[in-house]
Every structure is written in structure tokens, then in C-alpha cells.
Amino acid sequence: MIIVLKNDQATAAIEELKQHFGSQQEIFVHNNRVAIQNADPSDLTPAEQAAAQEIITDVPAAVQASRLFHPEDTIIKTPHSTIGGKNFTLMAGPCSVESAEHILKMAQVVKNAGATVLRGGAFKPRTSPYSFQGLGKEGLIALRNAADRLELDVVTEVMDVEQVPLVEAYTDIFQIGARNMQNFSLLKAVGKTRKPVMLKRGMSATVADVLNATEYIAAGGNHQIMIVERGIRTFDNKYTRNTFDVGVIPVLQKLTHYPVIADPSHAAGHTEFVTPLALAGVAAGANGLIVEIHDDPAHAFSDGAQALKPNEFNEMVVKTNAVRQALQSIE
Amino acid sequence: MIIVLKNDQATAAIEELKQHFGSQQEIFVHNNRVAIQNADPSDLTPAEQAAAQEIITDVPAAVQASRLFHPEDTIIKTPHSTIGGKNFTLMAGPCSVESAEHILKMAQVVKNAGATVLRGGAFKPRTSPYSFQGLGKEGLIALRNAADRLELDVVTEVMDVEQVPLVEAYTDIFQIGARNMQNFSLLKAVGKTRKPVMLKRGMSATVADVLNATEYIAAGGNHQIMIVERGIRTFDNKYTRNTFDVGVIPVLQKLTHYPVIADPSHAAGHTEFVTPLALAGVAAGANGLIVEIHDDPAHAFSDGAQALKPNEFNEMVVKTNAVRQALQSIE
Amino acid sequence: MIIVLKNDQATAAIEELKQHFGSQQEIFVHNNRVAIQNADPSDLTPAEQAAAQEIITDVPAAVQASRLFHPEDTIIKTPHSTIGGKNFTLMAGPCSVESAEHILKMAQVVKNAGATVLRGGAFKPRTSPYSFQGLGKEGLIALRNAADRLELDVVTEVMDVEQVPLVEAYTDIFQIGARNMQNFSLLKAVGKTRKPVMLKRGMSATVADVLNATEYIAAGGNHQIMIVERGIRTFDNKYTRNTFDVGVIPVLQKLTHYPVIADPSHAAGHTEFVTPLALAGVAAGANGLIVEIHDDPAHAFSDGAQALKPNEFNEMVVKTNAVRQALQSIE
Amino acid sequence: MIIVLKNDQATAAIEELKQHFGSQQEIFVHNNRVAIQNADPSDLTPAEQAAAQEIITDVPAAVQASRLFHPEDTIIKTPHSTIGGKNFTLMAGPCSVESAEHILKMAQVVKNAGATVLRGGAFKPRTSPYSFQGLGKEGLIALRNAADRLELDVVTEVMDVEQVPLVEAYTDIFQIGARNMQNFSLLKAVGKTRKPVMLKRGMSATVADVLNATEYIAAGGNHQIMIVERGIRTFDNKYTRNTFDVGVIPVLQKLTHYPVIADPSHAAGHTEFVTPLALAGVAAGANGLIVEIHDDPAHAFSDGAQALKPNEFNEMVVKTNAVRQALQSIE
């Protein structure tokens, strides 16, 4: 249940509830709201009940992710970005970090287009073990240097618990890949850090699955979480790699306070469909975009087919900006 | 195969090809392009080959739907609308025609918002036989009268071959519902008329399935076809009724010349998500929207949960127009 | 609601309930059970309530299909078969009727293997309009003659309302194809006949969808209904044409009294997987099998890739019989 | 490519090929077959070509998993079981290890039914972080002791790289859960051990995805791999938790030499459907079953709804044995 406390009694009541329930149940506090797992109103003392302005009993398992517990938007601040709420965050970069020179060149494209976050994979979760697996630490260093040179934030994937300290040393935002969305050990590990986490939705993850996955991170005390829609698996992937579930953007934004980012690149799988999907995501209200770019897609180390060339990326940004401004001017 | 004829030899070569192949194979002509089913270049005479500027052998089964056969956009003209190409067509109305008074009231809302097509079901394909099945002919009459009073076109569903003449007498555009997308007898029947057909994608129809379904209509000589994306069935329908496959809009527009209309209402299933999906569809380049409205959704005869109220619809139109204009101003 | 009447008061109470509700609500009677749509216990008079042994209010929309209304198995009798309950019915034949000679040859194979129903399509719902569409009436005649010569029943597909009288004249069982599962006009039309109907599950039809589709048939007074599981559409159809949902067999048998037939041919799509799927279906408790066979699959007019050759079919029958007998010997 | 060497030249040719390609390309040898990644016949010297009896160029990415590379069945030997080929392996136990007493009691049921592998989770991948997460090391000890007392093998889940040494110390077979099927770091870690690995198919994993996941294990040198079909996610999970993809069993057995085990419990999700799915899996040719049991399902720590009670489990075993014997008697 979630107990919404009367404002003038909140401080004292929170202490009392912690004392009463804290040793047995999980208890979470946000402003004047207290969520207690596995308890119901009949467990409250008369004094506790009297301090409540409202008691909500129909509560999802992922209670910390819910707007019932945390009504206002989560805003995440990184050195160069403010993510969530009315802000719009553009993230871009190559699929893989390929070399120090290349990532710097791409970072310049990213910066020029007005983006504030540089993406790039140093550890790559490839379907086949014989595909390029990423440059590892060397890639992290190159990525960090390029971002620092151009005053950009870094987002990069962490693939297992052991990599967490290494990646943490170089990134501003941890990325958890779609295939690891329910790697609960990894979620717990990044939940213990205090770096923001960008969680990609799994290929067949329901809305409840995604929110429960964020809860593994939040349960460790890390509340700086973003969710990425990157396309789901359906019965037809002949023309697009995945099916971009644009509807999940407003659905998630209704249910949770975490920012929702659209990834049109992995959904489209082919360059020609990236911009329409980016536009759809922005029009549906996404809090940001993460887009793959490459100056020579035919020779990209990975996912070249879906990488926008710099000029295509610039055109995409012009269009998505136009859509955002058109919608802002109405509100 | 598709034979692209040299322009100065096209007329004569078309006649020759018809004579050569017409009695055995299906043969279709569009300007200087001739599609012949079940034939390949080795079947051509030297003279026929000499008349060809290009011969395309990797041809989809739905050849008439393909841009390989018909490169330019199909433009459909109805009394009050021009559909396809750079045009944008707004269609709206209640799920069911409920009475002459009600449909007229809704038509006024539709007209005021700038839409040119009035939708409304007289024959309703309901999941259960015990649900309201529509007013039938009485509904058609009311729909036609309301549209005529306000100078709107009519689109309404036809459910079986026997209904075709009746519906044809009252509508400007036949609607084929998602559940009938592969009702091939019905597709053949509307293919023999010369009224435009709006074909809704089936719940689990692949892109190839949709295009093959249009081909059943085109095979009868009716080339005024629109395709509607109305959401597909995936593993999560708890928050939206279907998954709006926004990516299929640019995919279809690449492959086929027929206009592609977005139906955010059946995808969303809930009012609050209709506008974000409409915006996504428009941003992705849809040639039009078809939207359900109702002044009293709680008492609608069908699908009230997804009907926009008139003021909500007006807001949606303002927003979608803003997005369209923003994108047009860039091109 | 469903009212289970006390046996000694059933006859009188049924009359009273019909009088009370019959002019306004749909009312269905099965032995001492009366289902009334859109009514609840508070609508009953004290006398009506007194006649009830039990009143069930949590009732599915497809009430006539439900075991709550009709607890015992439906048994369907055709001239040469008894379908449902503890009976097992084997149906086989070519995808299409190709000629009088060929269907007779195939009928002999069917008969020799112990099957009692001959399948064969005279009207073929093909994805493309340019594929073979069936021999039509000529095919029906050939199919009927072959079956009569060998004392077999006929099952064949009817594709639209207009074909119903023609097909009815030649078949013992109407087949409704997967693509027409929600062609409600067609379901109503066969519901008005008194010939058994074999309804194939649509590619993405939920259990509720299937049962509601049967209800359209039952609403017309035709209660001789079979349901066929023939595979559903999922994210991987590279190796099998569809995903055989073997679990739906016991699920349907729990919820409904209609026989459930397994179609391993359309699920497998490739000969080598037909027998394993047939065995799975039988082991899971299917009331019968419908299997495609052909003596020369490479030259079959349709679906040759999934047709068992006569010797393969015979082996399949030996194996499925062995499994059935093994399971029967335990009960 | 895969080079099938002439038997009398195999030893020498293998050495030559290793020398030629081993420093640059990944090269795998199985008997007289040599797989070389990213190479084609034109890269071979005339002598190498002369030593080849056949060169296969259409090779899947997961080459070591393929029967093209390893035609004969993989047979896995654990202390009490022989898994794969014509052998049938029964595995059973509770979802979670709940206490030393309880797991011993369940082990006795497992043993009495003729099973040779005891399952039980000590680390539980639960959707919600607030659900029971397993007893951890204490659970492993209890599981090992129970198995040893009754001369059974142990299979238990390992959830992350760090847990590998601990779990390895107590188990005979590592289980990788469906949610971790593409946790590539974990796959690599168990690939470096020499304990058998039982890999559960992910909820929306294609056949190629599953085989590529096994390849991550095989690439580390561990070839003792089993694949488990445990149901996939489709559009209807109202009556069963997942859709049991029985067809994937013969498909996998055709493509790969690894044993394929059926898990009817997670597919069914409800006790009443476990036995029909187990029978379906066995009839389709599964190399074994893994089944969840509990003596008091209503109070199970996890997944009680799908646990068979001991008597239900015994009945299931009688039936599945009957089906296996019936099919064996025919071959």
C-alpha cells in the first residue's frame, strides 16, 4: 500500500511507520508518500491512519517506479544534460567505438547537431560469439576522451556485474541492453552505483516487465533511471528489424515518472526508416532520442545498415526539432 | 516479370505483348510498363526484348501494388477529397451510426474540424454475436444524408459479398475491416466495382499479406485502394488495445503507390492514447487519419472507450496540423 | 447468467423464463440449464429463483460454447464418423481437388489408413489472386464421388455466403478457413444450415476469439461445431510455417464441449515436421487429426511442401494409433 | 566453411589447416570435419582442396552447434544420467529449494518416479525484486545433500558470472534461465567450465538465437549443452503462461546435435495443463523432461500454480513412459 500523509504530520508519521514496519517489510519514502510492501490498511495503528490523507491499496509490484508513489517527473542531471520532464535530450554516436580518431570524428558530428550525449559501444552483445565483441577498455578511454574534448556526456553499455566498476569509471550513464533487461544481477549491481542508468526494453518485455526491471535498480537506491523503447519482436521483420512500439511511450509516461527515450535505429534496422521512426517517437512525446550514426556505414564494425550518415542525421535533427517546436508552441 | 518499354515503342510493343501472352498469362499494363505473370525474359521474342528499356525479374506476387510496376503515387478522387500523394485526408466519425440525429451532430463536428470524410458503421463486425450488429440499411441512409447535408464523403464498412450493391449505393468509399482482410470473395467483389476501397490491415498480417490482399481488388480492375494501419496484435495489450505499427507506414509507402492511412483509435483502444498515436502516424508520413469520435463516449453503442470527444478531437486536429505544417515547411 | 434448474421443476420453469425474458433478451436452453443474456439474478421473480438449483453469473460472452451451459461433450454424427467425446476421427486428403482421378486415388489411401473423412479444397483461399483458386463445382463433384465410392465423409471449405448452398449440396462438413474465422456473415450463414461446421482458428485468434466465432454459428441454431488448431503466427516461421499451439487443445477442451481437431500440416509447413506435430496433438488429447497428403508433392497444385506421401501418411497413422492406444490403456 | 576431409588424409590435413588458418581465423575440428570462420574455398591451397572429400559453404553462424559440423548426437554423461541420443532423461523437483527437509522429501518423490536429475532453484530470477530471491548457498548445500542421499544428479540455475564457481561446486548441470539466454558474459563463463549446461530458450528467441547462444558456450570449449523449450510469449497467455512451441523440438533436433529437453511446467503455468504438454513434448521426440513438483503447491515459495503434486507427477510419468514405449516399439 501507499500512504499519502497529511503534510503537517508527515515527518513524524514517516518515523513512526519506519519504526513500525521497517524491520520486517520493505518501506520506501518519497516526500509525504510511504510505500510499504506486503502490508494493508488494517496493519496500521489508529494514529498512523489518522496521519494519512489517503491510502492507496491497488499498487503495482514496481511501486517506486509508479506515479502513485512518485507523481512528479524524475529529472536526471548529468554534466552536460538535463533529462526528463519538459527537457528533450538527443543522444547519438556510432554503434561501436572503432578507434580514438573515429569516435572523435563522430563526436564532432554529434556536438554540431546539438546533441549532448555521445553513445558508443566498447562491450558489444553480439548474437554470434564470432562477431566483433568491442574494443573493451581501450574503447572506453577513447569514448571518454572524445566526449571530454567536445563537452558531451557518455552513455555506453555494461554487460555484466564484473564490468560495472570499469564502465563506471568512464561513463556518465550506464546502458543496459535489451538482452540484459532481466539480468537481475546486473540490475542490482548498477542499482548500487549512483550513476544514471538507461534501460533498454527487452524484445518481448511487457510494460510490467520493464517497470519491474527498473525496480531492481531502484531497490538498490539508484533512482536515476531512463527507459528506452527500441522496438519489439513481432511476426514480420522483413522490412524493419523490429516493430517500433510508439504507443508504449505515452503508456510508460502515464504509469511512471522516469524519462522515456526512443531508439529509432534498432527499431528500423535500415537507414531509410530511421527518420520516420524518430519523428514518430518525438511526436508521441518521447523525452529524447538515441540514434546511431556513422560516416561510412558500409564499413561500420557493427549495425552499419541502420546508421545515419552525418548529413542524414543533421536532416533528421532539423525535422525532429521542427516537430517538437510545433508541438511546444501549442501547449 | 515487368518489362519497361522504350517510350517511343511502347504502344506497339504493348499490343504485341498482349497478343503474345494475353491468352495464357495474366498481363497488366501501366503506362510503358507491362507485367506478365509466370513468364521470364527467355519467353520474349527478340523484337520484344529490343523494345524493352529494362526488364525486372525480381517482382513481388502483388505486382500491380508494387512501385516497380506503378512508380508514381496513386491519387484517389472522391466528391470532396483528394487522397494520396502530397494530400492529407482527415476522416472521422462515430464507430457506429446510432441515429439520424446523432450522425448529423457528429458530421457537424467532423466538418468543423476540416475533415472531408465521414465514417460510421452500419454493419458492425462484433466479436460476439450478442453485441450490437449495426442499424443496417437505415444506418446507411442516415450516414449518407448527414454527409450530403455537410458536403462530406462517406466511408463505411461492407462485410460480405451480398452487401456490396447496397453499400455501394450509399458510400463513397468501401471499408474492408481487419477481420475480413483475407476474405478473398469480398475483395474480389469490391474489386469489380469502381468505388474506392479502404482496406484495413489484419491483426497479424505481414506487409506481403496486405499487398496481396490489395491485389485481389486490383485484379478486378479497381485500382482506387487505400491501406489502413490500425494496430497489430502482440504480447501486451493491457494498456493499448493493439500495437500501432508506425513503421509500416513508410515501409508500405516505399513498396506501394497506394495511400496509407493511420487509424490511431483502434490501435490505442483508450482515448488518452489516441492523440499521441495520431501524431506519431502523421509524423511518420501517413497520407491521412481515420479517427473515432463521440459526444457521449460512455453511452456509445460500440467502442466508446476509444472515442475522442469533440473538443479532444479538435485539439488533436490542431496538433496534427501543426506537425504536418512543420514538416512541410522543411521540405 | 446461467440458471441451473432443479430437475423436477425444469420443464415448467423453462417455459416461465421464456415467457418472462424471451421477447427482450436472448435466451438459450440446454437440458435443465437456461442462459439469459444481459440479465442478472435480481431480474428473476421469487418463483424463478426458487426453481434454481444454482445461478452462475460469471459467464463468458460465448455462452453456448461454454461447459458452464453445456457440460457434456458434443458428439457429432456424420454418415461414416462419430466425432467428439472419446472418439477419434482421422481426416485426410489433398490440399486441392486436382482431378476426379486424383482425388479418387487419394481417397483410397485415406480409406486404407482407416480414416473416415476425406478432405480436399474446391475453393482455395490463396494469398495471391494469381495462384490456383480451385476447381470450383467440378471439384466438389469429384470429391463427393470419390468419397461415395469409398464410403467416406467429405469436408471441404466454403469461402463466402453465396457458396453455402452449393457446398452444402456436396459436403458432409463445412470447413471455415483460418482467414475467415471472423467472417461473421459466413459464420451466420453456415449457422443457419444443419450441416456440421469445422472452424479453423485464425492465425492470431485468442481462445476467446475462437469461442466467440463458434457462437456466431451456434446463434443460428447449428450446434455441430468442431474447432481446428492449425498453428498460430509468431516471431519465427523460418523452419515451420506456423507455431503449433498444442496447449490450446486441452485449454479448449476444458472450456468448451466442442471437439478439437489438430491440423499438423498447416502448422508444420514441411513434411518432415508433420508427424511429430501429429503425435504431439494426439498425445495432448486432440479429438482427431486433419492431414494433407499427396502422391506427388512436388507437383501438387497447392501446399505440396507439407503433404505427406501415402507411405509417410501410413507411418504417421501407425504411430498416432500407437500413442492413442497407449494412453487409452492407462485410463 | 566446413571442410570434410578424406579419412585417410584427415590427421595431416587438420594440422596443415590449423597452421594455415589458426593464427587469423577461428578454426574448429570435429573428427574429420574442420570449420573455419570467415574463409572460403578459394582461400585453400590445392593440397588442402585435394584432401577434402566435401566443402560445405552454406554454414550457419553457430557452426559448432550444427549437424553439418557434428552429425552425430551429443551424449552427455553425468554421474547418474546419460542424456541425448536414444536416451530419455527425467528431471524434476521444486521450483525453489525451500529447506533441507523439503528438498529431501521432494527428492524422494523424484527418485521413486524413476527420474535421475533433481532440480531446485537456490538463486531465483524473479520478475519483482521484492519476491523471494532464493536461499542462496544454503539452498545449494541442501540440494546437493538431498541428491547425494538419493543418488541423483543436480541441476540448478546460475544467474551471473560471479556465482559460477559457487554453483559449480554443488551442481552437476548448470541451468541458464530464459531471461539470461543472451547474457553473453554468463554464457562465456559457463563455457570455460567443464560442467554440462542446460540452456533455456528465451521468451522470444528464434531458433537461430538459441543456437547462437549455445555457440557462446561451445566457443569456450564446453560442448556438453542441452536446450530447453519452455514456452514462448505470444498474444494469448490467459489460460497458459506461455505457448509451448512443441514444433521447435524436431526442428532443433534436425539442426543441432545437442539434446532437447521439454519443460511443460513453465509453458503451462497451471497444473492441469502440465501433463498434456509433457505428453506432447515426449510424443514429438524430446530427449527428456524437466518438471516442477511440490507436495503443497498452495504454499510453495514460488510458482506453486504450475507444480504437480507427487501423485499427479507419478501419473504423468506413467503416461509419458507409455507414450515413449509405444513409439519405441514401432521403430
Automatic annotation (TrEMBL), chains A, B, C, D:
All copies of domain DAHP synthetase I/KDSA, residue ranges: 83-326
Name of protein: 3-deoxy-7-phosphoheptulonate synthase
Superkingdom assignment: Bacteria
Keywords: Transferase
Transmembrane segments: none
GO BP terms in the entry: aromatic amino acid family biosynthetic process
GO function term, MF aspect, one: aldehyde-lyase activity
NCBIfam families reported for this sequence: DAHP_synth_Bsub, PRK08673.1, PRK12595.1
Pfam families, sorted: DAHP_synth_1 (PF00793)
